[in-house]
Each structure stands twice: as C-alpha cells, then as structure tokens.
Amino acid sequence: SGSCQKSVYAQVHEIISQLISANNFYIALKSPKVEANGAFEFVYMSDEYLGVRTSIRQIESNREPGFTELVMKLGKPLLLSKAELDRYHQEGLARKPDDTTYSWLGVPLIVEGEVRGVMTVQSYQPNPVDYQQKDVDLLTFVAQHVANAVVRHEMAEFMRDSNSRLEEQVAHRTAALRAQINETREVQKKLKITASHDALTGLINRGEFIYRLNQLITKADTEVSSKFAVLFVDIDRFKMVNDSLGHAAGDTLLCTIADELKGLLRTQDTVARLGGDEFVILIEEIEVEQHAYDIAQRINDTLKKPFIIENQPVFIGGSVGVLFSDPAYGDADEMLCDADAAMYHAKRSGPGRYAVFDKSMQSDKQDAISLEADLRYGIENGEIHTYWHPILDLKTGQIIGFESLARWHSPARGIVPPLDFIPFAESAGLVKGIDLLVLEESCRNLKQIQTLYPEQKLYVSSNLYCEHFFQDDLVDTIANILDKTGLAPECLCIELTERALLEYTEQVLLNMEKLKKLGVSLALDDFGIGYSSLSYLYQFPIDTLKIDKSFVENLNQKASNNTILKAVIDLAHNLDMTAVCEGIETQADMNQVLAMGCNFGQGYLFAKPLPFEDIKQQYQDNRSFCSINCHCRNETQLELCV
Q1: Which of 99, 487, 519, 555 could, after both became Cys, cross-link 443 (CB 3.0–4.6 A)?
Q2: Which CATH superfamily is domain 385-637 in?
Q3: CB distance 155 to 163 below 8 Å
C-alpha cells in the first residue's frame, strides 16, 4: 500500500541520517500518469523548515525547472555548493535556489537504464555541511535499492492478492538495510534472499530451490547424510479454472494450494513454486522411502477435494513424480528433470496418481514430447479424420444418426488408436482444438447428405471435452459453425461426459440451457463410469442418456448386472430421456437391451466406426439408410439398403 511505501522511505531516511547529514531529505518520482510531460511527485520529504511530509506533492511540468528536474534530465548525480547553485541559475540551467541552501546533493533513481526519480539531501546551515564524493557514493548505492523497491511496489499494484506479500518483502529489505548499511556484501546477500521468493504464493522460487537442492547434493557427496527425495507436483485442470473463472480466481487457487502443500510437510521440508501450476517439494532426512510415498498420496488426496473459489467448488487434481537421492546425480537440474519425467509418467497413468522414477521414464518423456509435436503438426495439417459410428433404432434396424469420432492418420505412426492420443491430447491441452475440428467437419458432412437426399432424417452426435462448457463463448462458437456449414441446429447433438456435471459451475448450466434454446440436443456420454450423483440428471437439460458399454459387456455375469442396466434404462425414460446402449456386439446383446425397453443402440454388431467417405459412398450406392445387416462385424460390410 501507499502508506507502507512511505514508511519504507522514512526508514531509509533514518538510516541515511546516521551516516551523513540528512536533515533535509527528499524522494521524487516521475508521475506515471503524466510522465511524458515531465511532471513528477515528491513522495517523501523531510525539511527543517517544512517538517516531515508523507503526502504526495504534485509538481507540474510547466514550471521553471529546478535542480531535481536537472538530475532527471542528466541521469547522473549532482553535488553543488552554494556558489555552484548560483552559477547554474545564472547560466539558465535551473531556477534560482533558496538563499538558505548552502550545499545540495541529488542522485537519480535508475531502473534498467531509465531515470524514474531523484533522491536528494541539502544543507541550510550557515556553516555549510559540504557533501563529498563518499556521500555521493553512499547515496547512489542506497538509491539503487530504493529504485528496485519502487519498481516492485508499482508491479504489485497490478497483481491482485499479492500486496501483502510485497509489503513484507519491502519491509524485510528495509530491515536488512537498516541493520547492515555499512556492509555492502551483507545488504546484497539479504536482497538476494528476498528476491528468491515467488511474489504470488510467498513460496521460494525455482532459483532458490535449485540453490538449496545443489547444497544438499554437495553435502551428500562430502558427508554421510540421510536420503532425501524430490516430489514434482503438477496441478490438473488448472487452465480450466483460469479460463472459466478468470486469472484472479486462478491466482487465489494457487495461493490456496501453496498453503495446503505447506501444511502437509514438516518444518525441515521445503516447497517451492516453479512457475505456472507446477510445484516441487524437497523432503530431507528420509529414514524409509515409504515416508515420501505417504506424502505423495496425501498430496493427491488433498488435491482431489473441492476447493472453494469465489463461493463455488472447484475440482482439480494432481500428478506427483517421486525421485530419491542418488550419488549419480551431479546437480539439481538433473534431479528436477527426472522428477519431472516421473510426474509425466504419473499423469499418463491417470488422474490423481504418483509415480517413482526409473530410467525408462526418460525415454517415455522423450516419446511424449515427440508425440505432442507430431499431434500438433497433425492437427494443423489435416491428419485428424472424422469417422462415423451408426446409431440405430433397434426395432426397425434403421439408422437414425451417427456419432462422429476423431481418428489420427499419422504418416509416421500410421493410424493411431484413440486411446493412444485422446488422453494425451487432453493433458497437453490439444483436445479442444480436435473437438471443434471434428464438430465442424461433422456438420459439413451431414449437410452434404441432406443436400443430396433431403428426405433422410438423420442427426450427427459430436463429442465435446468438458472444458468447453466452462467457456462463455461456447454457444457462439457452435452457432457460428452451424451457420458456416448450413446445418440446422436440430440435426446436431452434443455429447458431454459426467465430469462436466461433476465439476458444475453456473457457466456449465448456462451453456447447456443456451444450446437447448438454440435447438441443439444434449447427450450424456458413457453414463455410469463416472462419479456424478444421479441427482445431477434432474438439474441439467439432458435429452439422451448414452449408457456405457460396460453395462452391456457385463450382462449375464451376475443377475444384479441385468437389474442395474434395466434400472438405468427405466431412469432415463422416467426423466423423459432417450436411452441409447453402447457396446452392442452380439445378437443376444441386442435382444436383451430391447427386452429391457431400450430401443436405440450402437456397437460393433452393426458396424465399426467408418470414414465419412465410406459412409457417403454406400449411401450413394443404396440411396437410403433404411436398414442394415445386424450380423455384420467387418467395417466394410455395413449395408445401406433401399
């Protein structure tokens, strides 16, 4: 705050007064609002005649320039006696000084080569106090640190939730300066320490963590010491919070996570923020490795719990890489690299996991880096193809619609199975782009069929990753795609997963209601494998319940499985939803789900997902989607009969 900053200036004045005559001490800063016009502000002044003033005094740019403006213009210190003050005035360099001023010393406050202000002392004594070059050197040294403090204060004005931490840093630096002003090396040491903390969370930053870890590695090389561990923590779905609730909410979440992590550790352990949503923990003096595993598990358990941000629950999660000390490690960077590889392995294994490093993980990480590069290239260069999977009326055998699916045809990797790249695309932040690409292509393709055969009543069902529903521009994006492709909204169904309901926000419900108003229908995909409460089905405007294939796969294994599937189908009907069973692979499967009252389904009994061009060709050959051979299992055998 401004009052805290003025207190800092007063403390600096107090310290300087112990070293030189500084009864008359001033700090002037360029005004940020009118800097181009040369105006400035006295943010602190202590004068024998005027007393101590901490209120800002604005100096307009149109007045006759004084010696403070001259230092700002020259960008270097000025040490002037009474005679020199008068001479400068006579030469027109500055306005006439006060008759009572006998000696004047001003030094610029310089930040990255730019003069930001001036720090001044002057003497009114009849027997003048002549300032000397050593006084110039001292004031210049102090001015460097005051300038840095000014810059940090200005930066903090633009960072919500960080004012108190910045004030603490400034106060710490001022205390260090007061205690050790005569020992430059000690002052610099203190400044380095305070500069080693993350401004947002108050945790130590990457540089300080590496310094401490290197010290521990060196100690382990020269002394008999206990084992230690490095835990690399990555926050899942942090970008979702930033995108849906804003950066201020994201900052609040990071601070809350930092506090939670500190609360899980002993006093001798260290937690740092590396940057973004990555944290790293140093656990010292480990007697058994299980201690590190327990902490990793507690971290994941903590991150699974809802965080209350802006009065609503936010669900995130985390992945933790565990690395133990080893004499083979020469420096901190090597250990961080391997801990990161372990974290990445944990992330690929699924949400809320931790993994312990082994050497094979480095090659896994390199493979992942290569996969990401190939996938990014593939998205940009048309390697993502749209496949269509028929959805049938099980009573008539008629195709009523298609689910559009993404398939990656990589020149280097061949046809990459969805399970090998979709989860990776989610963690790499690429899946949203894939979703929109497939959505637009699906709408365009169905419009082609409708244009050729307008009598066919078909719809396309396209999957959207749950994070789309946290965006306030989702409905506009879909409306633009429909407008661009010419497809009617009622011919489009958007499939979303239970996670979008579990991580409920007002924006999710608002987007669903807007889509319904637009005319687009909504389907809940893979129902039954998530964690959402059945009560959510009553709250959201869902049209179709797509029952996960695991329910059909487990039919007849035990009686309760059949009972559960029948109950889910009945639940959908009672909520006025259409039930669609996924994973129908045999005639017996189809007969059973029909007997349970489910009239719609899809599965390999009918066809595997097919490229749109194959669908289009068979459509052109048969001129209709009236029925199919329900015994075909080869994707080339899908029959579209007249």
Answers
A1: 487
A2: EAL domain (3.20.20.450)
A3: no
Question: How far apart are the C-alpha atoms of 371 and 316, rounded to whole Å?
Answer: 25
Helices of type H across 223-312:
238-245, 247-263, 290-304
pLDDT at residue 627 in the model: 44
For 222-243, the DSSP string reads: HS---EEEEEEEEETTHHHHHH
Distance CA 604, CA 607 (A): 5
Distance, CA of 394 to CA of 627 (rounded, Å)? 10
Please name which of 297, 323, 303 lies closest in space to residue 315, comparing C-alpha atoms.
303
Dist. CA 278–CA 325, nearest whole Å: 20
3-state secondary structure of 499: helix
Q: Which long-range contacts (CB under 8 A, 24 or more apart) does 454-459 make?
A: 456/624, 456/625, 457/400, 458/399, 458/400, 458/401, 458/402, 458/491, 458/625, 459/400, 459/401, 459/402, 459/490, 459/491, 459/492, 459/493, 459/521
Task: Tell me the mean pLDDT in the region 195-207.
Answer: 88
Neighbouring CB atoms inside 10 A of 297's CB total 14
Rg (CA), the chain: 35
Closest C-alpha among 421, 335, 423, 429 to residue 378: 421
CA 319 to each of CA 99, 162, 235, 277, 341: distance values in angstroms, whole numbers, following the listed order: 71, 27, 7, 11, 11
| CA atoms within 13 Å, Cβ hemisphere of 113 | 0
Yes or no: domain 2-194 corresponds to CATH 3.30.450.40: yes
Distance CA 124, CA 134 (A): 20
- The answer to whether the beta carbons of residues 578 and 543 sit under 8 Å apart is yes
Q: How far apart are CA 276 and CA 178, in angstroms?
A: 35
Helix axes 587-595, 559-574, angle to 10 degrees: 50
Residue pLDDT, tens place only, 271-302: 999 988 999 999 998 889 999 999 999 999 99
What are the two backbone dihedrals, phi and then psi, of residue 256, each rounded to the nearest 5 degrees? -65, -40
pTM of the complete model: 0.57
Residue spans of the domains in the chain: they are 2-194, 206-358, 385-637
- Tokens 């300066």, residue located: 177
Q: What is the pLDDT of residues 137-184, one digit of tens each?
A: 999 888 888 888 777 776 666 565 555 655 676 677 666 666 666 665
Q: How far is CA 85 from CA 20, 120, 192, 459, in A?
A: 20, 14, 39, 87
CA pseudo-torsion sign 464, 466, 467, 472: positive
Strand ordering across the sheet containing 278-286: 270-275, 278-286, 227-235, 318-324, 354-356
CA–CA separation, 534 vs 132, rounded Å? 81
What does 461-483 look like in DSSP terms, one character per residue?
Answer: EEE--GGGGG-TTHHHHHHHHHH
- Identify whether the C-beta of residue 442 lies closer than 8 Å to the C-beta of residue 436: no
In degrees and rounded to multiples of 5, residue 181 shows phi and psi of -60, -30
Residue with tokens 């075909």: 632
Its CATH architecture, for the domain 206-358, is 2-Layer Sandwich (3.30)
